[in-house]
Amino acid sequence: MPRGDLRRARHDLARVTVAESEARHRALLGALPDGVLLQDANGSVLLANPKAGQLLGLTLIEGPEEPTPGVPSPRRAGADETSPLHLNGHRRVAEPRPGRIEGLNRISSAALRSGQMQSGFTDPVLVDGVSRLLQVTSIPLLGDDGTARAVVSSITPAADPAPGPDAPVHDADGEDIFRRTMQHSPIGIAVATLNGRFLRVNRTLCRMLGYRADELQARTLADIVHPKDVDTVRARIAGLISNDEDALRLERRFTGHGGMHLWGTLVVTPIRDSSSRAVQLVVQIEDRSDLYQAQGLMTHMTLHDRLTGLPSRPLVLDRIQKALDRTRRSGLRVAVLQCDVDHFRVVNDNAGYEDGDEVLAEIGRRVAGSLRAGDTAGRLGGDEFVVVCDDIADESEAGMIADRVRAAVNEPLVLGGRTLRPTISVGIALSNTADNDPLMLLRDAEIATYQAKNRGRDRWDAVDTGLRKAAAERLDLESQLRAAITDGELELHFQPIVGLLGRNVIGREALVRWRHPQRGLMPPITFLPVAEESGLIVELGTWVLRAAVQAAASSPHPGYVAVNVSPNQMIRPGLADQVEKALAESGLPAGQLVLELTESVMLSAAPSARQEIERLHGIGVRIVVDDFGTGFSALSYLRDLPVSGIKVDRSFTSGLGEDPQCDRIVEALIGLGHGLGIDVIVEGVETEAQSALLAGIGVEHAQGYLFGKPSPRYELLTA
């Protein structure tokens, strides 16, 4: 067959198929015993079947009309032939006579406004000399955005007179409209009397609550509402009936067969007669249990630590407040115990973060398992756990709980084939009155934890007035130091490093000082510990690095500048980037910058920190081990890392010439440095006798008050 003939044949076949489909839908609508009417969002009648035209006295016009946005469109070839929504191919409606559909519009407009099914009775409609009272059920058609775009109404003659509050609703042929139209709705729907007794129920509601239809019809709305919500629902429905409202919407709990519970959205709509008197109720229940379970899970995740499952900080504070509230009745006290894992960073650095998380999870289980019933274990973050106990008599009872927690945590723990014995330091804070603030108790427990760590770790301490005062001063100092970094209150002093033979300056160590507005010039020992604990040391160290290289670059005197690097700076990535940037800005050659790292930092350096050290060495910056001899005994880092020098700690220098042990230790350290081919600098040289002794055993470089005290003048020479 030629291609053109084939195309025409397909087109003719499509027209025949569409015509047959429209004929089927027309026959179906015409056979319905109920009237069916479609209106747009403005209330204009778009189409009606013959029964609707008969009941309302409408003039029907054959043929389709133009499509209306949001309303089912005329059928096109290739569309779904079985869809019951394509009604425009049947009959549309001429402008109805005034007064014919006002009662219907009242009900359909309420459905459009509420987005919910509405039922009710029209005022008497006079058609062909006969006055009829009509019952209308209107269902909104929603667009993709959830907005009602049109409404379809089912219309039947109402029983005469209008039904009473306890009468079931039937159509003219005695068929139950509710059962016929709503049985397959995904929402549970019922028709009920004004006192809540169910007259009709659909399958979804029966399935939702676990009852058969006859069992549910023997009950009332109050029987399926959760007992704690019954009074509220009754009062709201009474207001709905008396206030001439369109609908009531509530989120409530429901009780089904066997005591099962579910959360759902309850929508109650009154069916009103021609005088707007409520005669029955349409009850709709949408099961929202899955949504509430998801919300409950989200709430749990917000209030609980993901790793351990223990309460997190917000929930811990809530538990402290509830415990304080209970003390008003008991007269006892609340104890808050903060538990910090000792040396946990070593576990992370050496075992990795995944194994570290496993250790924390196990410690969390041990802490929780060692408590009394009713006590709370929580995790504040990192390696910090917390315990909340109420009904505590005194500090000794809280201490007994702390000891029990410590003993549980201290049990052996096998990790990657190695056996660990974790320990914790515990700080205890006790409430004095029920008016104590949860944050204050938590802060006091943290203060006591610091004290426990300072006194040797693996122990507990309780906060006292002195500790609280010291902590307050520390917080003040931290705040002031933060401002000092940006306000220009810091300054650098430089102490010379000299060659022993000619006393010529070969370098200068940069030492930070704080010129406090009230307390004067403060040495680093008074504020560096605060900077380390608070994390300000990173910002402070960056300032020192930039100021030191600027001073060295602007000085005409030769030599290098030495800058101390904090452990906190090393464990954070980016140190090499900061150094490169500072050198580029100042113009100082990389070979004239020395970074001093403590022995403990070198030994425990994580892989990332080792990479930073290698990179610094690669750009020409020298690495010197500070306070050598006072840290760990392992010396493998001198072999594995690019170390260019060591500084012998001043504690060994002080006994030179007086203590033979000091002499032998210093001589051994000097021999070790020379053997490895690295520079050796001895700190703390204060006398000519010490200087002569060091020169005699081959020391080339030294630093100390004998050669010059720290001074803000970078170009300071030897005395």
Automatic annotation (TrEMBL):
Q: Which InterPro entries match?
A: Biofilm_reg_signaling, EAL_dom, EAL_sf, GGDEF_dom, Nucleotide_cyclase, PAS, PAS-assoc_C, PAS-like_dom_sf
Cross-referenced Gene3D superfamilies, in alphabetical order? 3.30.70.270, EAL domain, PAS domain
Q: Which Pfam families match?
A: EAL, GGDEF, PAS, PAS_8
Q: Which residues form the PAC domain?
A: 248-300
What are the residue boundaries of the EAL domain, all occurrences included?
474-719
List each copy of the PAS domain by range. 21-62, 174-244
Q: Where is this region: Disordered?
A: 64-84
GGDEF domain residues: 332-465
Q: List the protein's name.
A: Diguanylate cyclase (GGDEF)-like protein/PAS domain S-box-containing protein
